[in-house]
Design goal:
about 375 residues, alpha+beta, 2 domains, 12 strands, about 20% strand, globular
Length: about 375
């Protein structure tokens, strides 16, 4: 069987949501009105911290698929002013969110225990205000949210190979500037982070044989497996990875923007940045290369995401081990594409209805576990009650 990215078809029920005349869909999806609809039609659970668990109306997988969003739409009306990553939310909210993550991941691993038959993943993509709202590929909901997804590996194996040049396949082997031009600097910077539970692993450990992804990205095995996710230290280290990535990203594009610019404000690891980046010739040569191209090529410059844009996830590899990886984001924002899974969503109410009962049974069961752990209260919709 050839190894390569797969393109699967996922049916969905057409959403009866009218976009006001004169608005683009991704402008409307940022609105408080749309987020209210998300809660009332697909909401499963919410809590006083503002975290909302919901069914994905436009899902990646109809086997298991849901998200948690930090719903600040009623409190922060400016979409560009909303928190878009864990490091921007209050510690108390992050603590609750991490506990919700742990329970949801444990549920997926319990229901789908065989790594040979199911791909299990959880993670988030950056929703920073890095491009104009009207640009293609801009996230439709600018708030912190993440994904919990299970794919049937047999269905993936039967799916056709995706176009390897699909711009949404934003992995390190094909699209990441960091990996392509300064791999050794990037890896050395991450290796200097203070980690204990997360252990750096080789590409052949992190890569899925079926898809060949992720490609060339820094990856870490979770020492202790699923049990480690119940340790608060794991989530602190998960955040350290993100903070390190943000420091690298901001420092690099700061140098691209302005030659010999000072350290960005509020840097997380200033000494590490100074020692490993700002005195590294390969790092600064790459920044000059990008800066020169931005000056010469307006189209290239327009595609630059000047603020940190990333995908970070936890997934189960071919040996059943939990792996953490992080990637520079590019055009696409589907977290699945980091693992070589391209989702082609197609409206098909009948096909969706066939999969819906089993999906809802699982979502309502995991909701019961979250309620029991005092992580929120159930939401009633036209399809389900609060229990």
């Amino acid at each position: 069987m050839p190894s390569g990215p797969r393109e699967i078809v996922t049916p969905f029920r057409p959403i009866p949501l009218a976009v006001p005349e004169g608005m683009k869909p991704n402008e409307f999806f940022n609105s408080a009105e749309n987020l209210a609809d998300l809660m009332h039609n697909n909401g499963l659970l919410h809590n006083p911290e503002g975290l909302l668990l919901y069914r994905k109306a436009l899902g990646h997988s109809n086997l298991f698929d849901c998200s948690i969003i930090y719903n600040t739409s009623q409190r922060i009306l400016d979409p560009l002013g909303r928190p878009v990553r864990r490091t921007q939310v209050p510690e108390a909210v992050r603590n609750v969110w991490n506990r919700m993550n742990q329970i949801l991941i444990a549920f997926m691993l319990e229901r789908y225990p065989d790594h040979a038959t199911h791909l299990v993943l959880a993670g988030e993509a950056s929703l920073d205000a890095t491009w104009p709202l009207t640009s293609p590929g801009v996230p439709s909901i600018r708030m912190l949210h993440n994904h919990f997804i299970v794919f049937d590996k047999q269905a993936l194996a039967a799916a056709p190979l995706a176009d390897a040049h699909n711009p949404n396949l934003t992995d390190g082997g094909q699209h990441s500037l960091f990996q392509a031009t300064m791999h050794d600097v990037y890896q050395a910077f991450f290796d200097a982070l203070d980690l204990d539970i997360l252990v750096p692993c080789a590409a052949d450990v992190s890569r899925l044989a079926l898809t060949g992804y992720p490609q060339g990205l820094p990856s870490w095995e979770v020492r202790g497996g699923a049990a480690a996710l119940r340790d608060v230290r794991f989530w602190k280290e998960y955040d350290i990875i993100l903070k390190g990535f943000i420091d690298f990203y901001r420092t690099f594009f700061g140098q691209v923007s302005t030659r010999n610019s000072p350290l960005p404000r509020d840097i997380h690891f200033p000494q590490l940045v100074e020692e490993k980046l700002l005195f590294d010739n390969a790092f600064l040569t790459a920044a000059k290369m990008v800066r020169d191209q931005c000056i010469r090529d307006a189209q290239y410059a327009n595609l630059i995401r000047w603020q940190p844009a990333f995908k970070q996830l936890i997934y189960r590899n071919d040996d059943g081990k939990l792996i953490v990886t992080i990637s520079q984001n590019s055009i696409g924002n589907a977290i699945t594409e980091l693992l070589g899974v391209v989702v082609n969503r197609r409206p098909d109410a009948e096909a969706y209805a066939a999969a819906e009962p089993a999906l809802l049974d699982q979502l309502l069961e995991v909701r019961r576990r979250l309620v029991a752990a005092d992580l929120g209260e159930g939401i009633a919709t036209a399809q389900w009650g609060t229990d």
